[in-house]
Specification:
Largest sheet: 4 strands, mixed
Bound molecules: zinc ion
Distance between the termini: 33 Å
Strand content: 5-15%
Number of helices: 12
Radius of gyration: 30 Å
Helix content: 55-70%
Strand order of the largest sheet: 1-2-3-4
Number of domains: 3
């Protein structure tokens, strides 16, 4: 995330803080000072904010450690004024696991509140006018804050934990993509509702409006990201490779190459030996330029490119496309691992078409 700074690293997870968080500290301190509460009160309020965010960090580590139990690492946690965002390597796709990971954050706050309440014997009377920013009653306020975090995070909207809980529950009945889109729509609906209520009752609360806006954006992003993942997930090289292609023997001449080029839509030709082993690729570009320089009787063997990278039909498509991009060749030969024979060609164009078809089918299913 842009505008964030590292503060420390714990069990392989970097804790970062977003610049806007410091605005919150400044805002709180200035409120105290302008309210004539004095420097001591301002310092206490800032300490309280730090304690609040310590609870946020513990909350995030609840998610991080639960995810770790399923073998999922978390590279970083970013603290924003509205809470923390743990960037898990991936979210568990199993609804039951996502449910556990989502719930373990708020569970930490339940435990903190319970420890303060039962362990320290602190009680707080919570009422709507309760102000966390008033000086004094440090532990009471911290307990109230933890209760608030539980309630706030269980709002059923992305990126709140409640949104994930909702998706996990929906995913028990719907497929993952649909569950995500529905959960995102519910979250956006809630955000809109909050904004509309604020407009109708003309109670303008900038922080709440900011949160509603943030939720609205984040919910849309989550739905889009999952739709994108659905399109490429589980795609293998064999789903996107070109299987109907022409090849040239090494002793063929450039004239043979030109004939193949003019005969069909194929532009790049693999050069295969008698056993079907891949020798190289004759690209259209190389063919045309060699034709002008060396004449039509020249053997393709001298003109073809060596393509040392190869892939296999069962290979993950995303990884194979990375290899294709890194390689200088226009097509990646797809080699059968058992026979060693060339069974297909992977080109960026063909893979792009396969992804488009997949996305169109996903949209059809979603509608
Ligand atoms: Zn959480």
């Amino acid at each position: 995330m842009k505008w964030s700074f590292r503060i420390f690293t714990f069990v392989g997870t970097e804790v970062r803080i977003h610049a806007t968080f410091f605005l919150l500290l400044l805002f709180v301190a200035s409120q105290e000072l302008m309210g004539g509460e004095g420097v001591a009160a301002a310092v206490e309020s800032m300490l309280f904010i730090v304690a609040m965010f310590a609870c946020v960090v513990l909350h995030e580590f609840g998610h991080v450690l639960a995810a770790r139990g399923y073998g999922i690492k978390t590279p970083d946690i970013t603290l924003l004024p509205i809470g923390g965002v743990a960037r898990l390597e991936r979210m568990p796709r199993k609804p039951s696991q996502e449910f556990v990971v989502a719930v373990c954050g708020p569970l930490v706050n339940v435990i903190i509140a319970a420890v303060i309440w039962l362990g320290l014997g602190v009680t707080a009377r919570i009422h709507p006018g309760y102000d966390l920013l008033q000086p004094g009653h440090f532990l009471q306020k911290l307990m109230v804050w933890n209760v608030f975090m539980v309630v706030f995070n269980l709002i059923p909207a992305f990126p709140m934990d409640g949104g994930r809980v909702l998706r996990a529950l929906l995913a028990l009945f719907l497929d993952y993509g649909r569950a995500t889109r529905l959960a995102a729509a519910i979250g956006q609906g809630i955000a809109m509702l909050v904004a509309i209520i604020m407009l109708l009752t003309s109670t303008f609360h900038p922080m709440l409006l900011l949160i509603a806006f943030f939720i609205f954006m984040a919910a849309g992003q989550e739905a889009a990201a999952v739709t994108q993942q659905e399109a490429t997930r589980n795609l293998r090289v064999k789903d996107a490779m070109l299987t109907d292609f022409r090849a040239l023997p090494p002793h063929a001449t450039l004239r043979d190459g030109v004939e193949l080029l003019l005969a069909g839509a194929q532009q790049d030709f693999p050069v295969l030996d008698a056993q079907g082993g891949m020798q190289g690729m004759l690209t259209r570009r190389d063919l045309i330029s060699a034709l002008a320089e060396k004449g039509p009787a020249h053997p393709v063997r001298d003109v073809m490119r060596r393509c040392p990278e190869a892939t296999q039909p069962g290979m993950d498509l995303t990884r194979a496309l990375d290899a294709l991009n890194a390689d200088g060749c226009p097509a990646l030969p797809v080699i059968d691992p058992l026979s060693g024979a060339l069974v297909g060609l992977l080109t960026a164009e063909n893979a792009g078409e396969a992804l488009m078809v997949r996305a169109a089918l996903a949209r059809l299913r979603a509608s």
